[in-house]
Specification:
The complex is a heterodimer. Chain A is mostly beta strands. In chain A, strand 5 and strand 6 form a beta hairpin. Chain A is globular, with a radius of gyration of 13 Å. By secondary structure, chain B is mostly beta strands. In chain B, the strands form two sheets. In chain B, strands 2, 4, 5, 6, 9, 10 and 11 form a seven-stranded mixed β-sheet that branches. A four-stranded antiparallel β-sheet of chain B has the order 1-3-8-7, with no helix packed on it. Helices cover about 0% and strands about 55% of the residues of chain B. Chain B starts with a strand and ends with a strand. Classes of the chains: A mainly beta, B mainly beta.
């Protein structure tokens, strides 16, 4: 199985700051990576697919990038509604796997 | 706008079969190119892909669950279903149905349903 390792486990920031979340794949996955935001009691929400394409309705403060097997989700200026858990997911091979998540919390 | 809704028992006894149904509205489950999927999440933990059924009826399961899981589709009801047999407490989780197109992420999700395995 392809393992996705996310870092950091928890990121503490203030509104208006820049958030950088990382996801490293254990082997090459092309650009077959998605990012999700999940708030307590809610289903995940697709933010990014294809490593860097924003899903429908996602604000442009969210962006994704890739360098080899290292993927990054950036929130240019964190807003109050952005505090949540973020997970990455690969869909290049079966079984589909998810990272363990990064919690973005208020500093 | 496609919407998904899970339904099924919230409590299942150990060794029995967990059965859930996902009802799709706002679109046809027979429309081409969609992977209709089940995903679960134990409390406080990450997401686990269980398996999927494709528009053509083909299935693919997580090897960790393959011997116990079956996903089927009922096009007449616009539903797809999950059966997980021989459940234990380790199968206690929120179960989500979701869909994605080839080359994309899961863009539609149900709200999730908590299934507890306990006697």
């Amino acid at each position: 199985d392809i393992v996705l390792t996310q870092s950091p486990g928890t990121l503490s920031l203030s509104p208006g700051e820049r958030a950088t979340l990382s996801c490293r794949a254990s082997q090459t996955i092309s650009s077959h990576l998605a990012w999700y935001q999940q708030k307590p009691g809610q289903a995940p929400r697709l933010l990014i697919y294809g490593a860097s394409s924003r899903a429908t309705g996602i604000p442009d403060r969210f962006s994704g990038s890739q360098s080899g097997t290292d993927f990054t989700l950036t929130i240019s200026r964190v807003e109050a509604e952005d505090f949540a858990v973020y997970s990455c997911q690969q869909y290049t091979s079966s079984p589909i796997t998810f990272g363990q998540g990064t919690r973005l919390e208020t500093k | 706008q496609v919407q998904l809704q899970e339904s099924g028992p919230g409590l299942v006894k150990p060794s029995q079969t967990l059965s859930l149904t996902c009802t799709v509205s706002g679109g046809s489950i027979s429309s081409g190119g969609y992977y209709w999927t089940w995903i679960r999440q134990p409390a406080g933990k990450g997401l686990e892909w269980i398996g999927r059924i494709y528009t053509d009826g083909s299935t693919n399961y997580n090897p960790s669950l393959k011997s116990r899981v079956a996903i089927s589709v009922d096009t007449s009801k616009n539903q797809f279903s999950l059966n997980l047999n021989s459940v234990t407490a380790a199968d206690t989780a929120v179960y989500y149905c979701a869909s994605r197109r080839n080359g994309g992420g899961f863009d539609y999700w149900g709200q999730g349903t908590l299934v507890t395995v306990s006697s």
